[in-house]
Amino acid sequence: MKILYMGTAAAEGWPGLFCSCPVCTHARTNGGKNLRTRTQALLDDSLLLDFPPDTYCHALRYSLELAKIHTLLVSHSHMDHWFPTDLIHRHEHFGHGAEGVLDVYGNQAVKDSFDSHILIDRFKPHPIDDVVHFHVTHGGDRFQSSDWDITAVPADHDKREECLVYICKKDGKTVFYGHDTGVAFSKEAWEMITAEQYDLISLDATMGTKSIGGYHMGLSDVEAVLAQLSALGCVNEHTVKVINHFSHNGDMTHDQLTAWGAERGILAAYDGMEVKF
Fold first, then answer.
1. CA distance 51 to 100
2. Are 175 and 198 in contact (CB under 8 A)?
3. Residue 45 sits in which domain range?
4. Helices within the chain (DSSP H only)
5. Residue 125 burial by CB count (10 A; 0-12/13-18/19+): exposed, middle or buried?
6. Which of 62, 129, 137, 194 maximizes the CB count within 10 A of its CB?
7. What is the maximal distance between C-alpha atoms in the chain?
8. CATH number of the domain bearing residue 172
């Protein structure tokens, strides 16, 4: 199995769109892996994780044929993870030869946003009911999509909606994709997370050197979660451990994040990083 990290930044991107802080200035000056688009990943060429405004950019950069992908998991409705208007382009009027149906899974707020962007007068001549199916998804839901067995797990994020992280299984491999979330998982969520043994675990590291106790994780939170999962046998020396979803407000450059991870056997994701496991 493999995962492609197409975007690895938080909402404002890295460097931030209107920011001149030291971390953003360093990123503009040095470029390379310091330049990050909004977070999105692709599992095994078939499972798309989130749909940010940068999806079109990612499709170009990584030569993706999105028309061949049939499963999209959306974590929550924040704009850096969900830009639904682009899904209208799966209609034959805009793009030709899309294969079958794209099944989209997300919470009610994600569905409401989808409706408000797609079910408008401008697009009424081009209904996408035959090419995009939306499934309102709740924490605790377990479902199959294509070859994937998926569990939606309640996240510790925006309390105004039912934010989700996901456990994804296929061909004997198990992945935990944990963005955006803090460490204050509910009892129900923790029971789901600790019921598995992971081949790859990808954790939110938005806050970098800081810890805010919820909403997002910092590096100290990542260490604490991994220590708990290790003690319970959910991760081991064979588990690929990744930190992802970085903000310049975490006060660390890419090289600093990489060095921190190298000391702990953790990979710091960057745009274009592909991991086989």
1. 19
2. yes
3. 2-276
4. 22-30, 55-61, 108-118, 187-193, 219-231, 254-262
5. exposed
6. 137
7. 56
8. 3.60.15.10
Per-residue pLDDT of the chain (277 residues; tens, 9 = 90+): 999 999 999 999 999 999 999 999 999 999 999 999 999 999 999 999 999 999 999 999 999 999 999 999 999 999 999 999 999 999 999 999 898 999 999 999 999 999 999 999 999 999 999 999 999 999 999 999 999 999 999 999 999 999 999 999 999 999 999 999 999 999 999 999 999 999 999 999 999 999 998 999 999 999 999 999 999 999 999 999 999 999 999 999 999 999 999 999 999 999 999 999 9
Q: CA-to-CA distance for 35 and 170, rounded, in angstroms?
A: 31
Query: Pick from 252, 256, 241: which is nearest to 178 by CA?
Result: 241
Give the global pTM: 0.96
Sheet architecture: strand order including 132-136: 132-136, 102-106, 71-73, 47-49, 40-43, 2-7, 273-276
Dihedral (CA of 19, 21, 22, 23) sign: negative
AA identity, residue 26: H
* Domain total in the chain: 1
